[in-house]
Amino acid sequence: MTEQKTRKRGPSKKPGFRQELRVTPLVENVFNNLKDKYDLKNNSEALHKIAEIYFSNKDYLPEHN
Q1: Averaged pLDDT of the chain
Q2: What are phi and psi of 6, to 5 degrees?
Q3: Which one of 13, 32, 40, 63 is least enclosed by Cβ atoms within 10 Å?
Q4: Rounded to whole angstroms, what are the CA distances from 32 to 16, 17, 18, 20?
Q5: Please, which residues have CB within 8 angstroms of residue 34's CB and are 6 or more apart in sequence?
Q6: Which long-range contacts (CB under 8 A, 24 or more apart) does 38-45 make?
């Protein structure tokens, strides 16, 4: 008799993407402010905007591969 594994709930994992991000109330507030200011659709876009703002204020800019 073979046992079938029960699938975990939630979306399937994508390689290279983090599936869980614990968001504190402070971070949620930042996300909401950015979404309102830049008309963003979700927290992923807000997180990307945070990275753009961070790197635009630094001497180091990551190269796109």
Answers
A1: 79
A2: -85, 135
A3: 63
A4: 25, 22, 21, 19
A5: 40, 46, 49, 50
A6: none
